[in-house]
Amino acid sequence: QRHLVESGGDSVQTGGSLRLSCVVSGDTSRPSCLHWFRQAPGKEREGVASISERGFTQYADSVKGRFTLSKDKAKNILYLQMDNLKPEDSAMYYCAEEGLGTWCPVVVATYNSWGQGTQVTVSP
Per-residue pLDDT tens for 29-58? Predict the structure, then answer.
């Protein structure tokens, strides 16, 4: 099983930027999909972005053109660069892993493991 630890959340104003990081440890030899999802109070979980073992990324329509997902395979760190942030982006952000790493849709039914989350707050 993998252990994931997120960081980088903060409070910013509309239009600002943040970069979230997720350190992945444990059984990193097994290929899998890596994800960022978010959840705001009273709202359902929302898949934000995913990346396959080969680096193919997919994004939710709500963040396309504003968020960029990348990973440093050597360091086992997943990044989410968030630009032009909006108040509706406010949520707890989690990184997670699942699947076999080949086809990695943004929306999945369940994850194998996820971190404790990092809070992003965007003020008007």
Answer: 889 999 999 999 999 999 999 999 999 999
